[in-house]
Design brief:
Blueprint (H helix, E strand, L loop, with lengths): L3 H5 L12 H12 L6 E5 L6 H13 L15 H8 L5 E5 L3 H13 L10 E6 L6 H12 L5 E7 L7 H4 L3 E4 L5 H14 L3 E2 L1 H10 L4 H15 L2 E2 L1 H8 L2 H15 L2 H13 L4 H19 L10 H13 L2 H12 L11 H11 L27 H4 L38 H17 L8 H6 L3 E5 L2 E6 L2 H11 L2 H15 L4 E6 L12 H9 L29
Parallel strand pairs: 1-4, 1-5, 2-3, 3-4, 6-7, 9-10
Antiparallel strand pairs: 8-9
The structure holds zinc ion.
Zinc ion binds next to helix 4.
C-alpha cells in the first residue's frame, strides 16, 4: 500500500499529533519540565499515533536546539534530522513480533548497558510489545526493574491486556483513542490543501469514516485516491474506490430476504453473479447488515460501522421484521461458505430458498441433525456414537471422562433461546457465531494452511480465561495450527476475529490430545454438529489443504506505525 503521504505528513511536533489532546499535553509537559519517565506504554488501535508520538518524544529529549522549558524539538538540528531520516543511532526501533525483534529483546540486557552514542538519551521504541513473551519478557522485566540511566523505553501495543502485569505496572501508561471522524477529516483537508488537491468535503468525510479512527488508514486511502483520480476528488470516486456500491446492493438483498421476497432475492444474487462480481464481499456485507438489523432490534445501534443512511434503513427494517426471522436469516446466511476457487452463487441461492421455506421448529426444541450435504465417507458419519447422539445430550464429548470441561462450548441451540436477542455472554456469542468465525478464519492471512479448515477439524473448543481453547484428535493438525499462529499477521487476525465476535479480548490456545490415534477416522465432534445445525457445511476434504503460500500482507511489517 502506498504510504507516501502518510510518511510525508507524519507528526514532527507534539502539536501535529491528531486527536489525542490529553496525551499530547501530558507528554509535552513532561518533556518541557525535564521529567520524562524511563518507561512508557502507549496502547490503542492502529493508526492512532502511538509510534509517531514515541518518535516525537525521542526527538524532543535528544534535540540539540530545543529551548529551555519548551517541549517541541526544533526540527533543524543534526539529531532531529537524523531521527526524521530514520538513522539516529540512539533511537532503536524493535518490532517485537518479528523474529529479529525477539532476538533483539533477548540481547537487550547486554546492550542497554552502553551509554547513548550521540544523544542524551537512548530511546527504545518497542512495537507490538505484547509479543514479548517467555524468556524475553523475563529479561525485559529485569531491565525495567533496574533501569539503566539515560535510557527511555516506549512500548507500543494494540493489545495491552496481553502484556504481563509486571511489565505494565512499571510503565507510565497512555491509552490512545480512535481518532474522531471529524478530526481525521480535518487532517485530511489540511493534507489535501498542502498537496494542491481539491476534494469535496463529503468525500473526505467518507474516507475518514471508512478508516474507522485510524489516521494512517485514512491518509493511505487519500493517497490511493490521488493516484487513481488525480487532484480533483469527488464523493463518487471515493464510493467507487471503497466499493460502497456493494453496501446498497447488500441492503437491497437484505430487504428482500427479510421481506420474504424469495424471487427478488434470488434475482439480486443472480444479477451480481452475472455481472461477474465477487460474491464474497456481497455475502459478508449481507451478514453484516443482518447483524446490524438484529442488534438494532435489540436496541443496540451503531454497533456495525455503516453509513448514516444505511443505518437508518436498517433501523426501519428492524422495526418491521420479527427477531425470529432475522435470526433465521442470519443463521442461514452466516452458515454459507463460499469457496475461494468456486465463486458459485449456489450456496447463497440455497440459503435464500431455505429461508423462504417454512420456519424450523421453535428454538427450544432441538433441531434434528442435518445430514452433511456433500461430505465424503469420513466426517460425522464415520463416528456414529457421537454424530447420532441426540442434540439434547450434553455438548461435552463423553468419550473422555478425564477431560475437564470448564465453561464447555455451548449447545448449538443456545443463541436462539428466549426472544432471539443476541447472546450477551462470550459463550453464547461463540455458539451463535461459530460458523461465521470459522469463515472469517479461513480468510486470515496464512503461510500454508487454512485456519478455518484447521479449526473445523478440532475435536472440541471451549472458552477458558481469555482464550478459546481448541483440542485436536490429531497431533498433525494441532501442529499445523501452531505453525500458522507463529506468524504474527495470522495470529493478530485470529485474535481480532475472536475478540470482535465474542465482544471481549480473546486469544487462541491449541491443545493436542496425548496418544490420540493419528490414523483413526476423523471424528466430527460436537463442534461439527454445532456448525452443521447452524447451517454450516462439512468440507468434503477433512485435511486442510496447504495453500501455495500467498504473500502475507505487509501493511504492519514495515514498523512504520502502530
Ligand atoms: Zn533538534
Amino acid at each position: 500500500m502506498s504510504e507516501v503521504l502518510y510518511r510525508k505528513w507524519r507528526p514532527t511536533r507534539f502539536a501535529d499529533i491528531v486527536g489525542q489532546p490529553a496525551i499530547t499535553q501530558t507528554l509535552s509537559h513532561a518533556v518541557a519540565s525535564g521529567r520524562t519517565s524511563h518507561a512508557y506504554l502507549f496502547c490503542g488501535p492502529r493508526g492512532t499515533g502511538k509510534t509517531s508520538s514515541a518518535r516525537v518524544v525521542a526527538k524532543a529529549i535528544n534535540c540539540l536546539g530545543r529551548q529551555e522549558g519548551a517541549a517541541d524539538p526544533d526540527g533543524t538540528c543534526a539529531i532531529c534530522k537524523a531521527v526524521d531520516a530514520g538513522n539516529f543511532v540512539d533511537l532503536i526501533e524493535v518490532d517485537a513480533a518479528s523474529n529479529r525483534g525477539i532476538d533483539e529483546m533477548r540481547d537487550l540486557r547486554e546492550k542497554v548497558r552502553f551509554a547513548p552514542t550521540l544523544g542524551r538519551y537512548k530511546v527504545y521504541i518497542i512495537d507490538e510489545a505484547h509479543a514479548i513473551t517467555g524468556p524475553a519478557a523475563d529479561a525485559f522485566l529485569k531491565t525495567l526493574e533496574e533501569p539503566p540511566p539515560n535510557t527511555v523505553f516506549i512500548l507500543a501495543t494494540t493489545e495491552p491486556h496481553r502484556l504481563p502485569a509486571t511489565i505494565v505496572s512499571r510503565c507510565q501508561r497512555f491509552d490512545f483513542r480512535r481518532i474522531s471522524t471529524a478530526d481525521v477529516a480535518e487532517r485530511l483537508r489540511e493534507i489535501a490543501g498542502h498537496e494542491g488537491v481539491e476534494a469535496e468535503a463529503e468525500a473526505l468525510h467518507t474516507i475518514a469514516r471508512a478508516a474507522g479512527g485510524s489516521l494512517r488508514d485514512a491518509t493511505n486511502l487519500l493517497d490511493q485516491l490521488i493516484t487513481a483520480y488525480g487532484v480533483h476528488l469527488t464523493l463518487e470516486q471515493v464510493r467507487e474506490l471503497l466499493g460502497l456500491g456493494g453496501e446498497e446492493r447488500a441492503l437491497a438483498l437484505v430487504k428482500h430476504l427479510l421481506g420474504g421476497n424469495t424471487p427478488q432475492a434470488l434475482e439480486a444474487i443472480n444479477h451480481a453473479s452475472a455481472e461477474g462480481l465477487d460474491l464474497r464481499p456481497l455475502h459478508r456485507m449481507t451478514v453484516d447488515l443482518l447483524r446490524a438489523a438484529l442488534l438494532a432490534k435489540s436496541g443496540v445501534r451503531n454497533a456495525v460501522d455503516l453509513s448514516k443512511e444505511v443505518q437508518t434503513e436498517v433501523g426501519g427494517l428492524a422495526s418491521r421484521v420479527s427477531a425470529e426471522q432475522m435470526v433465521r436469516a442470519l443463521r442461514l446466511f452466516g452458515g454459507v461458505s463460499l469457496r475461494h476457487d468456486q465463486p458459485s452463487p449456489l450456496p447463497l441461492e440455497l440459503a435464500v430458498v431455505e429461508l423462504g421455506m417454512e420456519p424450523e421448529p421453535p428454538p427450544s426444541a432441538p433441531p434434528p441433525v442435518r445430514a452433511p450435504a456433500q461430505s465424503g465417507a469420513s466426517a460425522p458419519a464415520a463416528a456414529p456414537p457421537r454424530a447420532r447422539a441426540p442434540q439434547a445430550a450434553p455438548p461435552q464429548p463423553t468419550a473422555r471422562p478425564a477431560q475437564p470441561a470448564p465453561r464447555a462450548a455451548s449447545a448449538p441451540s443456545a443463541p436462539a433461546n428466549g426472544s432471539g436477542a443476541p447472546p450477551s455472554t462470550p459463550e453464547g456469542r461463540l455458539a451463535a457465531q461459530w460458523p461465521a468465525i470459522l469463515r472469517s478464519m479461513s480468510r486470515a492471512p496464512r503461510a500454508k494452511y487454512d485456519v478455518g479448515a484447521l479449526l473445523r477439524s478440532a475435536r472440541d473448543h471451549r472458552l477458558e480465561g481469555d482464550a478459546l481453547v481448541v483440542r485436536f484428535p490429531h497431533r498433525s493438525n494441532s501442529e499445523r495450527l501452531q505453525e500458522e499462529l507463529e506468524s504474527p499477521a495470522c495470529r493478530l487476525e485470529v485474535e481480532r476475529i475472536l475478540s470482535e465476535a465474542l465482544g471481549a479480548p480473546f486469544g487462541l490456545r491449541v491443545e493436542a490430545e496425548e496418544g490420540s490415534g493419528e490414523n483413526g477416522p476423523r471424528q466430527g465432534g460436537h463442534l461439527v454438529r454445532a456448525a452443521m445445525s447452524l447451517g454450516g457445511q462439512v468440507a468434503p476434504e477433512p485435511e486442510p489443504e496447504p495453500a501455495p503460500a500467498p504473500p502475507i500482507p505487509t501493511e504492519e511489517t514495515d514498523n512504520a506505525d502502530a
